[in-house]
Fold these 2 entries.
Entry 1:
Amino acid sequence: RLRTVTGVQTCALPICKTMMTLDMIMSTDLVTITPGENLAAARALMHDNKIHHLPVVDDARKLVGLVTLTNVLAATDSFLRDEDNRIRANDIIVHDIMVTDVATVDEHASLRQAALFLEKHRIGCLPVMGGGELKGIITDTDFVAVAINLLEQIEEEEEEEPYDEDIEDIEEAI
């Protein structure tokens, strides 16, 4: 089951001159996996690409699930288990560990809506959909980058604004 967050809203911060959109910060160079692949392949893709969320797509490239680092860690058998009874990562199929109730976001939704949804539901990513197709993915890390950018802009504006004392000195000089 896929759920979608929809709508468009403008940025409420005075520093934001234009509406920030999902496509400004979402990842579009997607790394995906199919349901028939195994846990070892999912783990390797995540490690090699330094990602924590792996969209699962069928042969038609339609989103059918999501594998997260948490799924991978939970499915990974402990090395403490004796060698003969250990379940191998090659024997665990992605279909068996993937999340199928994936929350998604429409490509036209605002950043604010997506961020609020992530925060409210305590999830780490939202696949971005457009016309029934997977267009990208937005993660909590993307929002941290936006927050850092906005904080830097605020700091730059504060440095440019004269302090009240400076204004008083200027007025006294006139």
Entry 2:
Amino acid sequence: ILVTIIEQFIVCNIYAPNDYKEKITFFKQLHDILCSFKEKYSQFSLIIGGDFNIHLSHLDSHDYKTFKKSKDWYECQNLLEKFNLSDVWRNSNPEDRFFTFSNSSSASRIDLFLVDNNLYERFLIDSRIGQNKFKSDHYYITLSIKEKSNSPSFIMWRLNDSILNRISVTTDVM
């Protein structure tokens, strides 16, 4: 677990263990760490990215029929609820099945970006799954956050021609 403060964000990079029992402990520890950061930086928004080693949805596994909500799944869901987080890629792709991990026997989407739901009010947020594995069994994932523009896309400007009646302005223009 690596936690960094960047501007108004608490950014957390994780690698959850594969082992079921270790994963339960891991998510409990992550919960405690994030609580301590949120106490100190209560106005900051949380972003978590990394290898969660868990399927949040039946759509995240090639073998979706065997998906079950186990104790480690509930611990991870507890984080989402406690910190008002959502899965960025799943928000944009509610019914799609695309995977970040694959080997000869399985495929799943276990690499995620979770963000504070309040960020969607101020930012355009997107996550993409890369096309390359770079000598790994995981595809890379990206997160983009772009501030929403409050200004209109088209601005009408009109010259106030009464200023041309001022001598100083007409002298400078000529």
